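Recap slide: Oxygen tolerance, sequence and predicted structure.
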Amino acid sequence: MRNRSIVNSQESTVVATSFIAMRICLALIVSAIFFTSSAQSVSASVDRDKILLGEQVTLKISLNRINENNFFVATWPQINDTINHAEIVKRAAIDTINVAGNFTYQQNFVITSFDSGRWQLGPFNFIIQEKSTGKKIQLQTPPLYLTVLPVDVSSLKEYHPIKDIIDVPTGFNWLPVIIAALLVLLIATIAFIIIKRKKKPASQPRPELKGTPLERALKKLKALQQQNLSSTGAIKKFHSDMDDATRQYIEEVTNIKALHLTAGELLPRLKFYMQDAAERNNFSRIFNLNASVKFARYLPGETESKNTLEEIIRIITDIDENINRARTDADRLVPKY
């Protein structure tokens, strides 16, 4: 009886130990799956890996699962117009996708090639930076291979049959010449009458832009600092000119059509160039203030208007520094193709 109790006790201990081991293994598997799903990753793909000479294919590069509370994008791949026997026909802007707080950045390129062969595209390098420690992490995509096939012209060898010699008439037909001369004379007469009635003024040569986009924007904005805002009209014009100078700068440095977008449409597209959420909110407040003044919904005082101008000068200066820093890091750390 005593031996049976000892055996039962040992069996219970083995079962409990096995159950605890199973729970530990299950927890490790769940943790590994969660870590894998939340880690950053990069990818590069083409919608077709074989094309004929001159055909176009779409290349997509992506930076996935970036938590903006912990990381920001320090360097994006700078791809030249020619990349290993392939040419970039069109490059799209960088898109941002938010999935449950993790951001995915992606960019599409339309490419073509006029050299037959199998060409390597990439690898493409991304750099993200940890906000708390400043540590930089480089992520690299695997290389892609694009096969460019020559056009098959073997079926065209006998496309045009051989014809007999055709006799050319020796007489000259003057009728087509006379008709052509009359048509030319008629067209010349009509063109002369139209030009004489409506002479277009000579087109003015396009002025050459001097300095960088930031220098031109700061020149316009600092000129506003000297204006006297003693009337309602002066305040409206002050905010309208400030808004136009800011949008013109954004359009020149980012290729975003800022002059034709509302504040609600523009701010989400600036997310890549303004990593700080508080800075974006401040920028949005200034755009909304300028719009309210232009459409007579609000009239600020001179002090508020001048303080808003100082904020705009500081923000676009920070944007320009971020763009220049990213380009410098790209030139130093990322190989060009």
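Residues 29-37 have pLDDT under 50 and may be disordered.
Residues 2-38 form the longest helix (37 residues).
(End of recap.)
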